[in-house]
Amino acid sequence: METKFTPWRMDYIKSSTAPPVTGCVFCRMVEAPPDHDRENLVLQRGEHCFVVLNLYPYNPAHLMVIPYLHSGDLTMLEPEAANELFALTRQAVSIISAEYNPQGFNLGMNLGRSAGAGIADHLHMHIVPRWSGDNNFMPIIGQTRIIPEDLDTTYGRLRARFSKR
Q1: 126 is in an annotated binding site
Q2: Which of 2, 9, 61, 154 gives a 20 to 30 Å CA spacing to 93?
Q3: No. of H helices and E strands in the chain?
Q4: Is 36 in the active site?
Q5: pLDDT per residue over 24-37, tens digit each?
Q6: Residue scoring higher pLDDT (54 or 144)
Q7: Where are the transmembrane segments (predicted)?
Q8: Which domains does the chain have, with CATH numbers?
Q9: What is the pLDDT of residue 12?
Q10: 88 - beta bridge partners?
């Protein structure tokens, strides 16, 4: 049997037994000063939205574009915020394509808890790069996902590209 070490997953495991943190995780990211962006995995701040690495990614470079507005209702976004959400999504796809050369992408929002939203009260767009063969038997049979790059490395690679824009 082959052993895969994923030490960053321990934070996730421990978080399920830790006392709940109050407030919205996304709002806390926005309220933190920009000098905490690396710690919070924030890659870019726009006027209405920001781009952040997913702390528990499905694949390397799994990002989210998140409006500053704390709402789970897509219809509550002002047109400028909705336009920036999509513009930052396009920019992120372009940056991930240049840096990681994926063969495809999954883009999407889960609106509402019943639709699968983990954070239902603050909408967010997922951007998940995909490669042929990235979904093997491990998640299906072993209930384990293998991420071949740590978040700090991913952050450094993507932040450099976002900074150039």
Answers
A1: yes
A2: 9
A3: 6, 5
A4: no
A5: 999 999 999 999 99
A6: 54
A7: none
A8: 25-163 (3.30.428.10)
A9: 62
A10: none
Q: Tell whether pTM > 0.70.
A: yes
Residue for token pair 């700090």: 152
Q: What's the rounded mean pLDDT across residues 41-70?
A: 95
Indicate the DSSP class of residue 23: S
CA nearest 71: which of 55, 82, 86? 82
C-alpha 163/C-alpha 165 separation (Å) is 5
CA 7 → CA 11, 55, 137, distances in Å? 8, 13, 21
Closest CA to 40 of 117, 152, 118: 152
Rounded to 10 degrees, the C-alpha dihedral 124/109/94/154 comes to: 60
Q: Is 54 annotated as a binding residue?
A: yes
Q: What is the pLDDT of residue 44?
A: 96
Cα torsion 155, 156, 162, 165 to 10°: value is 180
CB 16 within 8 A of CB 112: no
